[in-house]
Amino acid sequence: MDNVGYIKNHKVTIVELGTDNETRIDVQSAEDMSTGAYIIRCSLNDQEIVSTQDKYFAAFQQFRDKLLEAGYGIKCNGARLNAAPLSKFENGPRVYILESDAKGLPENTVDIWDKADINEFPDSRQQNRFINKWSDEHLGRPEQYKELSKLCLAGFILTLSPPAWLLLCVIFQELYLVWIAGLLLSPLLGLIFSIAGVVTAGRSGKRGKGFGAAGIIIQCVCLVVAVIVFGPAVVEHANTTRRITSNEMYPLGRLGEASNTEYDVTKYMLPEGYDLNSPDITVSDSDFETYAGNKLQTINNKTDKSIRGVFRDYNFLIVRSDRFDEWLSVNCPQGLRYYKGYAGIEYADWWEFAAIGTYPLAVYKDPSDKYIIITNCNDYKVITEFFEQ
Fold this sequence. Notes:
Blueprint: E1 8-16, E2 22-31, E3 38-44, E4 47-53, H1 56-69, E5 72-75, E6 83-84, E7 94-97, E8 110-111, H2 124-138, H3 150-159, H4 162-171, H5 176-204, H6 209-246, H7 285-295, E9 298-302, E10 306-311, E11 314-320, H8 324-331, E12 337-339, E13 342-350, E14 356-365, E15 371-375, H9 380-388
Antiparallel strand pairs: 1-2, 1-5, 2-3, 3-4, 6-7, 7-8, 9-10, 10-11, 11-15, 12-13, 13-14, 14-15
Helix pairs in contact: 3-5, 3-6, 4-5, 5-6
């Protein structure tokens, strides 16, 4: 031991935990004069066991734990479950022996290294837990070695972490999905850890319940604020979603640029000024179903006014012309729009950033005037084949 003061030798008894065989060994303790730390060491089975800590009892605990890891318990006062260190104003190789019926700290202390007739060998965590519990019950205050609840601290940190996730999302945009996941999960995990930390800290006598309580309070306040600020928007979003998805045109797809324009489909287009309320037009249910069955390759949905299906990979919606006004009032109250003298129709769909966009569909009529056809088909050849098949 270099740079140390007076070295004290202790003859102690250790027990091999697997066999209960007892052995006497020499232990040395001293203070490092350059750092003020305490050093405890011994040689055991051709290896050196050394501990260094600022407090004497902490150095002993570290030394005892290393012996336990090597498979040996030490029979001395310091290794007792109810051995407690001196106050923070004192330091040295002595300990209190805490009694369950005591009203306060014992008046006298005993030497850490004096032999104790013990058969159980707790580690530092078990010993500190006992000290904390005894201190709470008999002194009404936490002890200097009381363990901090890691759950409470983690819950509090996670509660405050959303701004950090937002900053990461701005700086490292290529990993934005990871940061958004952290932003969404951290408050939930923070609340779970805070609640678990407060519960376990109360049972085990750990400190840090203030962190856990703060985490819970912050999360509850944020939840209330979020409900007040974003609640109406969420409700409106849900209502809008129901309105959009209940539309029979949703999602028919989007009408692209026309192709195969050499085919003339103007005779099938619905001209501006066309009378949709002609009293001479009547459609029976059986005729309607027969027409749709002949035109569509697959049928996806039927109502009393419309039948929806697929023809040549395009979506087609067939509406009875004698009930087209009723269908419009439900699905498109704004009515038809006209471009270059022919009718079209638009339906709403969600766009980027939760905005709503409107998308056009083509409108045609069967030559019999009995059926109105709405489609996302932009291929005039397919339109021609639909009507002429």
